[in-house]
Amino acid sequence: MGWLDPVRGLFDRAIAKLREFLPSVAELRGGRHKRGLIFLSVLVLALLVTFLVVVLVNRSSRRVSAPGDEISKTFQPSPIPAEELFLPGEPDFLPGVVLERERREGWTAEDAAPFWTDPMNAGPEGYVDSIRGVVDEMMERIP
Question: How far apart are CA 63 and CA 31, in angstroms?
Answer without folding.
Answer: 48
